[in-house]
Amino acid sequence: MSRLLSSPALALAPLVALTAIFLLGLAWFAARAAWRGLPRTPRVERLGGSPILGRFFLEYGVWMFRPLERAAVRLEIHPDALSWSSLALHGVAALLLAVGAFGLGGWLLAFGAACDALDGAVARARGLASDAGEVLDAAVDRWAEMAVFFGYAWYYRELWWGFLLAAAACAGSVLVSYARAKGEIYGIDATMGLMQRHERAAWLAIATIFSALWQAFRPSPGFSLHPLVLFALAAIAGFANWTGWQRTAFVRRELRRR
Predict the structure, then answer these.
(1) Can you tell me the distance from the alpha carbon of 114 to that of 118, in angstroms, rounded to the nearest whole number?
(2) What is the 3-state secondary structure (H, E, C) of 181-192?
(3) In this structure, how many other beta carbons lie within 10 angstroms of the beta carbon of residue 239?
(4) Distance, CA of 106 to CA of 149 (rounded, Å)
(5) CA dihedral sign, ordered 196, 199, 202, 203
(6) Counting Cβ atoms within 10 Å, is residue 87 exposed (0-12), middle (13-18) or buried (19+)?
(7) How many angstroms separate the CA atoms of 153 and 164, rounded?
C-alpha cells in the first residue's frame, strides 16, 4: 500500500496534465493581458503582490479559478461546504505527508488550497458572505494549516532540525494570522510582510510535488530527505515569523500613538 501511495504515477500523471493546463492558460492569460491590460480584481488589490508571489500570478490564479467559481455558484454549493472540504483534504494530506507519501499528499494540498480559495469567492458571488462565514473560514484555515505542519513534523521526527523547521513554520504561520486579527480588533490594518496564507500554500504544494517527483526518479536508500520541502519549510519559518513580528510591532506602535 505504501509503495502504491509513493509511486511515481501519482505524482507524474497529474503533474504533466496540470502543468500543461497551467502553461497553456498562462500563455493565453499573458497574451490577453498584453492586449487588454492586466485585470484588476478587488481580491488581488486587497492582497497585493510580493517578491514571493507577484500580482501577475495572483490575477492569473483568480482568472483560472473563475470557471470553478461559476460552476459552484450554478450548482448552488454552499461556501461552508467548500471550507469543510478544504479541511478534509488538508487533513488527509497531513496523514499522507506523515507517512512519506509526498506525491499524493502534495496534490491533496493543492486541491485543498483550491477549495480554500473558492469558498470566499463563492460566498461573495452568491450574496452569502457574512462575519459568521469568515469566522468559520479562519478557524478551518488554522486547523488545516496546523495539521499539515504536524504531518511534516512527524515525517521529520528523527531529523531534529527538520522537525524544528516544521514546528517553526507552524508557529510563524499562526503568528502571521493572529497578529493581523489582533490588529483588526483595534481597527488597525496590519497586512504587511511576506508568506501570507496563499503564499505559504503555493510554496508547500509546489515544493512537495516536485520533491516527490525528484525522489521517484532519483530514489535514495532509506530515509528520503526531500531538500525542496526542507527549503520551503525554512523559507516559511523565516519569513512568516519575521512577518508576524513586524505586524505585532506595528500594532503596538499604532496603539501607543493613540
Answers:
(1) 6
(2) HHHHHCCCCCCC
(3) 23
(4) 13
(5) negative
(6) buried
(7) 8
Which residue, among 258, 90, 233, 255, has the nearest Cα to 179 in the 3D structure?
A: 255
Cβ of 233: how many Cβ atoms within 10 Å? 26
Residue 86: give the domain boundaries: 2-257
Q: How confident is the model at residue 80 (pLDDT cuts 50, 70, 90)?
A: confident
State how far the Cα of 69 lies from the Cα of 91, in Å rounded to an integer: 23
- Tell whether the torsion through CA atoms of 138, 142, 143 and 144 is positive or negative: positive
3-state helix, strand, coil in the chain (%, to 5): 80, 0, 20
Give the Cα separation of 21 and 44 in Å (integer): 22
* Helix extents (H) in 126-159: 131-155
Provide the CA 180 distance to its chain's centre, in angstroms: 17
CATH of the domain at 49: 1.20.120.1760
Domain count, the chain: 1
Contact between residue 90 and residue 145 where contact means Cβ atoms under 8 Å apart: yes
Grid cell in block for residue 173: 504561520
* Measured CA distances, 112 to 82, 106, 118 (Å): 9, 10, 10
What's the pLDDT band for 101 if we cut at 50, 70, 90? confident
pLDDT, mean of residues 151-168: 96
